[in-house]
Amino acid sequence: MATAKHVLKRLLMMFAGYLVAVLVGLIAVVAIYAALSSLPNAPEYFSFFVVTPIAALVVPPLGMFIYFLTIVVTGMQTLIFALIAEFFSLRNFLMHMVFGAAAAACGFFLIWSSSAEDLDPARWADIGIIAAAGLVAGLVYWLIAGRDAGFRRPVVAALTY
């Protein structure tokens, strides 16, 4: 019973960590685009991403659509990465950050499937920005759920004198 309770707790922590990490990742995307839009020779559409969060706040269904679309395109690969971390009790924050970047990049490729063949430098910049936001999301996930990863209950060493 205690093991089932521990696994259920871990699954809930994975779910909560994922939902918060997606939200923080979306905020990171906007922050990165906003920072890069002020650089010289930045693509013109970078400044569009500074206005998009305001539209998402003014029209909440638009914000929820973006949030749930992000969950749909990153959910499966994130679940696979989280289960790997839980089964093998992987608690390294760098590994969670790399998993977050990979999940975000895979989600970008699901939406923009021609980006691998598209040699436009702006597409590669977009992939890098999305992967960097995935790094941030992976760190947030690690802070919430990854530090205590592991379906097996931790073994407490008995004190012997």
Taking the sheet with the most strands, its summary is:
none
Number of helices: 5
Helix content: over 70%
Give the overall pLDDT as a whole number: 85
- The residue ranges in which pLDDT falls below 50 over 5 or more consecutive positions are none
Please state roughly what percent of the residues sit in beta strands, choosing from under 5%, 5-15%, 15-25%, 25-35%, 35-45% or over 45%.
under 5%
| Structural class computed from helices and strand pairing | mainly alpha
Shape: elongated
Number of domains: 1
> Could you tell me the radius of gyration in angstroms?
18 Å
According to DSSP, the number of beta strands is 0
SSE succession: HHHHH
Between the first and last Cα atoms, what is the distance in angstroms?
A: 31 Å
Topology of this structure?
Elements: H1 2-37, H2 48-58, H3 60-87, H4 93-111, H5 121-146
Helix pairs in contact: 1-2, 1-3, 1-5, 2-3, 3-4, 4-5
Report on the architecture of this protein:
The protein has 161 residues and is mainly α. It has one domain. The protein is 75% helix and 0% strand. It contains five helices and no strands. Helix 2 packs across helix 3. It is elongated, with a radius of gyration of 18 Å.
Keywords summarizing the entry:
161 residues, mainly alpha, 5 helices, 0% strand, transmembrane, membrane, transmembrane helix
Brief rundown of the structure:
The chain has helices at 2-37, 48-58, 60-87, 93-111, 121-146. It is mostly helical. The longest helix is centred in the first third of the chain and has 36 residues, at 2-37.
